[in-house]
C-alpha cells in the first residue's frame, strides 16, 4: 500500500483523476482486510532524519500539515476524545484514513521504521511479527504502507535516476508474485540512493512470510504504477 497524501480526495485537487484508480485499489484492499481481520499491524517508514516510532490504537492525527485538516483515528470511537497529534507520521495517517473509509470497526497499531534500518533488523522484526500474529486468538492483518523509488521520471520528487527503473521492476514483480527472496535481496544502499524509501518495510514483509524459503499462499496485485514518478504498489498476500 503506498502513502501519498493525494489518496485523500480533499488533498488531491487537480490530480484527482490521476489518483482515482489508485484510490479505488487501496480502498478495495483495505475493505477486504477489514472483513477478514479486526486488528491490523501497520509497518511504515519514517521520513529521512525522522525517528522510528510506535503508535498506539488510541492515537488520532491530521493531514493539516499537507494542506487540509482531515482528521483520522486508529480505532473506533477515538475521534470523540478530540486529542490530535499534529506530527503523526504519514504512514500512520494513511492507515488511519484507510481504516476510517474502508474498515471503521478495525483497530490499528503502527510501527514506523527508520529508512536505513539494517536488513538483519528487518528480518528479526518480521519473524517476531509473524510469531505474534500467529499466537493471537483473533484474526490479525499486516498492512505495509510504503512507497517505491521516487526517482522514476525527470519530474519525480527525487529527479530521474536511471538505475531506479530496474530496481522498481524487481520490486513490482516480487510483490505481484509473492517472491520473498527478491524482496529480501533488495540492496539497502542502492535503495537509499534511488529514493526507494519503503525498502525496510518490504523486507520486514518478506521475513514475516518466511524469508527466501517462504512466501504467501496467494499473491494478488491490484495496482502497480508511477503516476507522479514515484512507484506505487497495491496488492494482497494471503498466508
Q: β content, as a range?
A: 15-25%
Low-confidence blocks of residues: none
Helix content: 25-40%
**CATH H-level superfamily:** LigB-like
Which class best fits the helix and strand makeup? alpha/beta
Form type:
globular
Mean pLDDT: 95
Question: What is the structure about, briefly put?
Answer:
This protein is of the alpha/beta class and 239 residues long. The chain is 38% helix and 18% strand. The protein has a single domain (5-238), classed as Protocatechuate 4,5-dioxygenase, Chain B (3-Layer(aba) Sandwich), CATH 3.40.830.10.
Write the layout of secondary structure elements.
Blueprint: H1 9-12, H2 16-36, E1 39-45, E2 53-55, E3 60-62, E4 71-73, H3 90-102, E5 107-113, H4 119-135, E6 140-145, H5 164-177, H6 180-184, H7 188-193, H8 199-208, E7 218-225, E8 232-238
Parallel strand pairs: 1-5, 1-6
Antiparallel strand pairs: 2-5, 3-4, 7-8
Helix pairs in contact: 2-3, 4-8
Structure report:
- With 239 residues, this protein is α/β, with parallel strands linked by helices.
- The chain has one domain: 3-Layer(aba) Sandwich (Protocatechuate 4,5-dioxygenase, Chain B), CATH 3.40.830.10.
- The protein has eight helices and eight strands, in the order H-H-E-E-E-E-H-E-H-E-H-H-H-H-E-E.
- A four-stranded mixed β-sheet has the order 2-5-1-6, with helices on both faces. A two-stranded antiparallel sheet has the order 3-4. Strands 7-8 form a two-stranded antiparallel sheet.
- Strand 7 and strand 8 form a beta hairpin.
- Helix 2 packs across helix 3.
- The mean pLDDT is 95.
Amino acid at each position: 500500500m503506498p502513502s501519498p497524501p493525494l489518496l485523500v480526495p480533499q488533498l488531491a485537487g487537480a490530480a484527482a483523476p490521476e489518483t482515482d484508480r489508485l484510490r479505488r485499489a487501496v480502498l478495495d484492499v483495505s475493505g477486504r482486510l477489514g472483513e477478514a481481520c479486526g486488528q491490523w499491524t501497520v509497518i511504515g517508514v519514517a521520513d529521512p532524519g525522522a525517528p522510528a516510532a510506535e503508535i498506539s490504537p488510541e492515537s488520532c492525527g491530521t493531514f493539516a500539515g499537507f494542506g487540509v485538516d482531515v482528521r483520522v483515528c486508529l480505532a473506533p470511537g477515538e475521534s470523540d476524545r478530540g486529542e490530535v497529534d499534529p506530527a503523526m507520521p504519514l504512514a500512520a495517517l494513511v492507515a488511519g484514513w484507510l481504516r476510517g473509509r474502508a474498515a471503521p470497526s478495525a483497530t490499528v497499531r503502527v510501527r514506523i521504521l527508520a529508512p536505513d534500518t539494517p536488513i538483519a533488523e528487518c528480518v528479526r522484526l518480521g519473524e517476531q511479527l509473524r510469531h505474534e500474529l500467529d499466537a493471537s486468538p483473533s484474526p490479525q492483518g499486516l498492512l505495509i504502507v510504503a512507497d517505491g523509488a521516487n526517482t522514476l521520471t525527470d519530474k519525480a520528487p527525487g529527479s530521474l535516476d536511471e538505475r531506479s527503473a530496474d530496481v522498481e521492476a524487481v520490486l513490482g514483480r516480487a510483490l505481484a508474485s509473492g517472491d520473498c527472496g527478491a524482496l529480501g535481496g533488495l540492496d539497502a544502499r542502492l535503495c537509499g540512493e534511488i529514493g526507494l524509501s519503503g525498502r525496510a518495510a518490504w523486507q520486514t514483509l518478506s521475513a514475516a512470510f518466511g524469508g527466501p524459503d517462504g512466501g504467501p499462499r496467494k499473491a494478488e496485485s491490484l495496482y502497480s504504477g508511477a503516476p507522479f514518478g514515484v512507484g506505487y504498489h497495491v496488492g494482497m498476500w494471503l498466508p
